[in-house]
Design a protein that fits this description.
The chain is 37% helix and 24% strand. Strands 1, 2, 3, 4, 5, 6, 7, 8, 9, 10 and 11 form an eleven-stranded mixed beta sheet that branches. α6 crosses α7.
Length: 243
Amino acid sequence: MTIDFHVHGKITNSLPFDSARFLSTVNEAKKTKIDSLALTEHLHSKNFSEGCVFLTENYPLENDYYNVDGLRVFYGMEITTKQKYDILIIGKPENIINLRIGIINESENAKSVDIHNLFENLNPEDLLIILAHPFREAAELEGLNNDIISKLDAIELNAGDLYDHGVDSMKNKITELSKKLNIPAVCGSDTHFFTGMGSVKNIFYDTCNSVKDIKTQIKSGKYITEISPDLEDRVKNARINKK
């Protein structure tokens, strides 16, 4: 199984979900030999649930993923915290929707959720939890206490960061952080436009039909990460189109 853990269906958070654009992302994933992705819209994006509604109305939910014409689409969200960390949470669609409702009801600002409050209310057993682009926004990594670290399944090697800071430099920083925290690293394109698909990917030794399967494979190290030789062109093109 080959998966990208960080994909946006919306080109910006202020725009509605565009099903045609999302299906272009699905098609590009297939072209680049990606057979699974996680749709991770921002918690505070406009009409957040539109993507889930579209998937539910048009594609079967099999185990934890939607079968979109043969491509697995897992469902999740990206949460921005006031401590300047971004957290990817992936799970069963109903669990993600309910979790978001709970966060919105308890938080004064959906754009800036307190990370400690967030993790106090998370049950990691049925969720895949990834620390996204950990070196962005000058977040102080020392602010991650043991309770938070213990609930993280992975940290992210982000395609945009590889583009901005250089592949070797960012790979080394993520490798060092992975060793320091004793948490595996996985790839995410973080793309808002279909041409970003294929810039990075995670290749799992076995097919995963549930979030628990993915967590088990990550924990056991039964996967490899792959950075495309055309990452620069893909990320640059996606950013131009987003603008």
